[in-house]
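Summary for the lay section of the report: proteins are chains of building blocks that fold into shapes. Here we show the chain for 4-hydroxy-3-methylbut-2-en-1-yl diphosphate synthase (flavodoxin) and then a coded description of the shape we predicted for it.
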Amino acid sequence: MGSRKSVSIEGLKIGGGAPVRVESMLKTRLTDIAGGAEETAKLAAAGCELARVALPEQSLAAPFAELIKKSPLPLMADIHFDHRLALAALGAGCRAIRINPGNMSGSAGLAEVTAAAKDLGAVIRIGANGGSLNNAQLEKTDGDRGAALVLAVEEQLKMLLENKFEDIIISAKSSSVEETARANAILANRWPFPLHIGITEAGCGNSGIVKGAVGIGLMLAQGIGDTIRVSLTSPGAEEVETGYNILQALGLRSRGWQLVSCPTCGRRRIEVAALVEKLRAIIPPTANKGMTIAVMGCEVNGPKEASGADFGVAGSPNGFIVFKKGAFLCRGEMEDFEKIIREQIVIY
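The coded shape description reads as follows.
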């Protein structure tokens, strides 16, 4: 899974066999340091491992330095248009920067940035974006946007390598699943550097989650990707939760216990959704890492269908039963649900 090479950002290893990392990006502007510090704390609590921060102006370098000191997780400066902003971010104490090859391609400026990054032991992410492709890149690829993403990454990558800089993450993202998956498949085949993957501007709500999950899941299932961000028009903690759900569905990482529940039908003996919420109140989402717990509505979908679950609950004519790996453990009435669950499942 993933790249042959690895990089380290403040001790966080990315690539080279490390777990697939889960990222987000601060929604709070750098003009609000208290809000930014609160948001980084929430992201860290949700399991975020790296957060990108937009640095659009030189005047924001000082508050960025303050935020870096307050943040419980590593930060990456998101830089566009002006290489001097990258230098300001490095000067503020940031040890990871993202540069956009669609709007920042000057070789002289990149030479300054790579020299400073090398001196400070910082990591550079080359982040090509479908919305920032320039006319020259599109003309060279006859309008093929997937190929233009690859070209954008490789143009800047070669400049960094010419400056003997190799602490690099590469990224090619678009709002198109097909373009993004194709571009990343090419890059993963050609280059050994860690890949950051995602579907940019995926949207919000269910449609955004589905689009992001399909694109990221498609790439991860092919062994492509070392770090992910689910780009949603939602709080960052929701991006992080969705990211872990994608990794858990693919069997790549687990932050807590995994739920299996039936979709319900007219046979149900219990209200599954309500019981799931009761179960979540008893067992925190980050507890019992790696455990699978099933909630099934009736005896048809009960122990047999969920026999792979470590523990399960199924509706019965007079309440519910609890089973382990398909084997019956006990039965109970709904008023005793919490007591019985705590007796049968050790929470850790």
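Put simply, here is one thing we learned. The first strand starts at residue 6 and ends at 9.
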